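Researcher: Hi, I'm a grad student and pretty new to this. My advisor asked me to get structures for two proteins we've been looking at. I'm not sure of the right format, so I'll just paste the first sequence and hope you can take it from there.
Model: That works fine. Here's the first sequence with its structure tokens right after it:
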Amino acid sequence: MIDAGPELRLQLVRERATLIRAAVMTHAHADHIMGIDDLRIFGFRLDAAIPIYCEDPVEQQIRQSFSYAFTDPATHSHKYAAPKLRFDRIAPEVPFQLLGLTILPIRIKHGPLPILGFRIGNVAFCTDVTNIPAAGRKLLQGLDTLVLSTLRKEPHPTHIHLDAAIGLIRQLNPRQAFLTHMSHELDYDELVRELPDHIRPAWDGLKIPISITAAS
């Protein structure tokens, strides 16, 4: 799983997801971590801590926001009182193995904040983008599918807007791009009419196949 938004439980129910084995985090803003408590059932089903793959600032924020998950279990009212979590450190441009996949973290910028995007085979997920430094753009070449956040039509200080997103997609040249993290100012039907065929707004329940080949 990439990130854990506040609506995570609804997503899991919608997708009939019966087991989550790990989470990979882009950054620690509330709309990306506040569903972590809903991982608790999976830790108990696995009888093991759920690994959270992230950078140090993300770990520190999660520890602060969910402090009860990291206290002595003997102090809990019952064994299901807190999720079982552990942290695994990741870094940009250093690929790691997870559940048969090679995942490549890529440094992107969310306004002034350095965060991570991820490439898995020929699919990449980049959310909350303002810009992608040159090193990251190089690692995002040759994609079959790019998932890219696009907040609105007007410029924004910490999120890429529609025209800039289209320009970035042209630079990266994926075969297909899906726009996500959109505000109410972007209308799905209008985007479908206006955008070229290889750029589409994403939708709830969209499924993108991911190969198990190593990330390049």
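Researcher: Oh nice, that was easy. Here's the second one.
Model: And its structure:
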Amino acid sequence: MSAWIWLYFTIFLIIALTADTWLVTHTKKHSHPSMRVAAFWSLFWISSALIFNVLLWLYLRYQSGDKIANTKALEFFTGYLIEKSLSVDNLFVFYMVFKQFHIPQEYQQRIFSYGIWGAVIMRLLVILAGVALVTRFHWLLYLMGAFLLLTGIKIFFFKEREKDLSESMIIRLLRRFMRLTSEFHGNHFFIRKKGVLFATPLLVALFFIEFSDLIFALDSIPAIFAITTDPFIIWSSNIFAILGLRALYFVLSDMISKFRLLKYGIALILVFVGVKMLIEPWIQVPVQISLSIIASILVSFSLLSTLTRS
């Protein structure tokens, strides 16, 4: 991709993140969005990703011809679908963090607003490092494939227990550098009591959100390497998945118990992508087939979750 398209996308990203932050900070009391508002913004970001895909296809068709345009547009859409589906699993982690630290709904948007900026920076660093390593050491793709395969098997067969975060490594680390309090003071990350500065549960939750997103990136970014090693496609598909994450959370937060079976679908996607990466020297799976399989798994397990909910 040319430097211009990187520049245009960066400008779009800064504008989108700034607008998103402005909307959150200027919402009355940072209120929890209604289902209708959250659904609107979730559809808005999904539509934005699809529009971007069309614009990317038109640009590449003009610059490089139909073949490359079709290939890159399909890679973006498949990568976006992978990242979007894997991000749903991360939403369950966010839900657990907010639940354990008793974060009021009206303050959750503020945490997401700061968390998205941090996630964008972390993703860029992970992607650039990953592309550089894979370009130089192609065999790393097979290690990534094995890692994704084992991760998928673990998610599918082993029940994950809800962890007590109050005595986790992150809490112990934070206590070494700052004083913590269980009290809230509006939507502030710090409060001052008798002249002493304390970090509120909002800051603690933000640290957990950022850490979980880093772990999520180490899972999801290797998965897209099974589709493409083009850094711009990896970067842009990741970013669009992140931009819609906050709205999607508020859509699903009230229905999160209804989609418990979806994690098994996500596990199967990881297994499929891992196997695809491992057999790459002998069998090339076309992107069209990958897209069909991933979409079928998502739809099947979403319907299954809906039909079997109590």
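Researcher: Is there anything I should tell my advisor about the second?
Model: You could mention this: The mean pLDDT is 83.
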